[in-house]
Amino acid sequence: MLCGNIACLAHILPWGIVSETVSENEGGKGVPLSDLLDSYSMNRLRRDNPLDQGIQNDLGPEEHRQFLQEVTGRNPLFGTLLAAGVPVYTALKMVGVNLGGTGEMKTSEPSLAEIGGAWTGYGQGLMGLLR
Length: 131
Description:
The protein has a two-stranded antiparallel sheet. The chain contains four helices and two strands; from the N terminus they run ββαααα. The chain has one domain (2-130). The model is unreliable at 1-28 (pLDDT under 50). The chain is mainly alpha-helical. The chain is globular, with a radius of gyration of 15 Å. Helix 3 (76-94) runs antiparallel to helix 4. Strand 1 (21-22) and strand 2 (31-32) form a beta hairpin.
């Protein structure tokens, strides 16, 4: 479960339902967290918890997906450039370049999941243009 307990995210979710998937503890398939949080709320959650690496890692891939989907849906050329740069971004994080600002790392740890999330969002953004 995201950050270990449901109280940790209640400050931005007025209905207080928080976990990677809602109802996962009740045996249901659950609702993905991305269905409850828009990209602004997800970004705010990451910004408000900069030193909680667990939150950063849990939200990172989904935030990457949402961001690339939105950008690509608005501007496919820019989305393509960003999607091509995702592996570079991840590699820079792997060698310790702090892309989250000054001080402590304020981003998710580099992972294939964040690359996959971004590229999934890119594909979803392109598919949305075809509808």
